[in-house]
Design brief:
With 314 residues, the protein is α/β, with parallel strands linked by helices. The protein is built from 13 helices and eight strands. The chain folds into two domains: 190 residues, Spore Coat Polysaccharide Biosynthesis Protein SpsA, Chain A; 107 residues. The radius of gyration is 20 Å and the shape is globular.
Length: 314
Amino acid sequence: MPWISFCISTYKRPELLKKQLSFISSQTFKDFEVVVSDNDPECSAETVVNKFDSRFKYNPNLTNLGMIESFNRSIKNSVGDYIIMITDDDFFSDTEKLNFFHEIFDKIPDQSIYINCLRKGKGNGEIQYCDKNNFVYELLNPYITAAFLWSDCILKSSIVKAIGGMPNYGSPHLADHAMLALCGRENGGVFINNESLKINSHDNNFSKRNLDTYYLGCKGFYELMHKQFSNIQLQKDVNVLDIHVKRWTFKSLLTLKGYYMKNKMKEDLKLLDKLSSSIFSLEFMKKHLNEYRKALILFYFKNLKKTLAFYLSK
């Protein structure tokens, strides 16, 4: 049984997948497997995966299961003690990454989650154990944990499988955050102040073409967290669920607006405005509308050249 299973879902992006698998194969720590769940019924990823050694395992889906269920299928088919959830386009380029995680594991063994992140007020590489009652609060609180990515942490496989993998409320957005929170709820976890991976932004990102999933993600995540965690876990000096969802929404909407304006995608901007209205019609988001309007004005001023170029274009 390998120590780590990389769980990947892919759909018709063989070149990106090939690059990702090449990065993974270059890891200096070799005790891993890679489970690729191919959402393309035409099996476009098969040739790519089969070019690598026997640790790389190809699992075709007979139909497009959707991103969440495809990821969950890769989890189900994995056999490693720990899991790394990773897309085909957020490249695992640090060749020492697995070795780094294993060194932390040797120091503090058998935790449910080890997460690289940006921690406020902590030294570079500083390690902190967090118990299960406080984990979700510290994870979602931007004043404590400023940034994290699901592909920059390892999760105990038995716990991931026990909670059913990634929750499916109709959107992949924030489902990764929910899964990390649910894993940490079992017996706590380890925070490592060592943010190293970045999201790879490109024209074929899933999120740029599936705007309806933002509404579903915002609503689904908020409702799931309220159902799974108590108010005591989510709210101390601040309500971390409220802050986390607000910040994610603001960042997502403004990032999309910048991208659409830069590329003069006027129809997409109209759809984005409809999406914004839908999100801020949600009961728990209504109170943030005025703050978002202020953030939008500030966005226009900070991006004045881009704004003028867009609105003066034909």
